[in-house]
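Why does residue order matter? Because the sequence determines the fold. Keep that principle in mind as you read this record.
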Amino acid sequence: MATAAKKAVILLSDGLDSSTSAAMARDEGYALYTLAFDYGQRHRRELQSAEAVSRALGAADHRVVRFDLRAFGGSALTADIAVPHGRSLDAMGDDIPITYVPGRNLIFLSFATAYAEVVGADDIFLGVNALDYSGYPDCRSEFLDAFTQTANLATKAGTQDGKKFNIHAPLIAWTKAQIIERGLALRVPYALTWSCYEGGERACGTCDSCLLRLKGFAEAGATDPIAYAASKG
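Structure:
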């Protein structure tokens, strides 16, 4: 009798990092239960991309959870605050940027833990990255370690059923170029992904996320398959 595939909940945003993390989980033999969030962000383009990537990777299930962080604001992604454009890499690293959404990964992981408990998954994958990114405090290994301990203390699965949640952030210490190289080897459908903070028909090419994405493709010696508002070479 065939053994059922082990299950993993995948946080799918969907940009380069989360799609690559999902493909790595699939490569390790997990059945993917992908989870995206409609949380009041600036646009819904990423939700369309998340569904498309989930389908392309053969996920067993894809869910979208809806809640509204615009009730609090405090970020260029959830309030009427301009997204920075054209910043240098040095400027990106100066401080936590205005695109940081207060509590976002803390909330996302709480939902992922609930979903994992319901579907019987021990493993949660997310694509956080602490190198080629903008210094978000909820993308650090210290936070993930602390949340893992909390998840195992706060659930029936962890306190009664003898299970243990494991949170995987396989890309946390990788550069964007390394992520892209791995993703290309795993045939990640990067043409379906969306990294831009803006929500136009084409990616802007000048926000922090676009600039880091373009830098990663250039350093990987690969061509970014998505369209940009202005040609980026």
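The longest helix spans residues 104-119.
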